[in-house]
Amino acid sequence: RSEGIQNPFSDVKETDWFYESVLYAFQNGLFKGTSDTVFSPHASMTRAMYVTVMGRIAEINPDDYKGRQEFSDVPAGSWYAPYVNWAKTEGITLGVGNGRFDPDGLVTREQMAVLIVRFYDAYKIPYPEATVKSYPIDLNNVSDYAREAVLKLWGCGLFQGDGTGCFNPKSNATRAEAAKLCILIDEAVEKWFIETGKKPAAEAEEPEKDTTE
């Protein structure tokens, strides 16, 4: 997937488990680095970052969602505002209450699961076939609002645990974890775009060019 791509990040080595994921996410315009030469794979994802990545996977045109303020704490001119507005319009995010989105809040693994399921449902994207028969052993730690989403993604293998059978729902997702997950989602979305004719195949090959983040 990442053959022939120059790795610009000093903190992403070929021996790292997330090497392929990070380069794929970078090459396909889903993630930027935190600088030109640093990716910060172990840093936590903010809610603004994650919704932005989802909007890039959906290949939205940010210009279509500029100039309005859906949440009191999302300035209309911020780099993430169009993506947050898109997510609100599609019912992917409902905010955190009191008209706020909490863009700088760290996204937990269970929050990511809920956002992914709402994204799939908003675009009517089919889920992979459920193949995992077990449940996370820490299922009781998953918030009620997120339980159905976590089980759905766990069952079809889109969201995995830590190797001991735990989902760790309250843990903050790292940028490396999010990049790995986004590969699976992006490939499914691209396939769906092409099969349904929503996006021409030629367009799907071109990474989105932008200057955000």
Q: Low-confidence spans: pLDDT under 50, at least 5 residues? A: 200-213
Total helical elements: 7
Give the termini distance in whole angstroms.
24 Å
Global geometry: globular
Comma- or semicolon-separated keywords:
single chain; mainly alpha; disordered C terminus; 7 helices; 213 residues
Mind explaining what this structure looks like?
The protein is mainly α and 213 residues long. It is built from seven helices and no strands.
Summarize, please.
The protein is mainly alpha-helical and 213 residues long. It is built from seven helices and no strands. It is globular and about 45 Å long.
Question: What layout of secondary structure does this protein have?
Answer:
Blueprint: H1 19-27, H2 47-57, H3 81-89, H4 109-123, H5 144-155, H6 175-196, H7 201-204
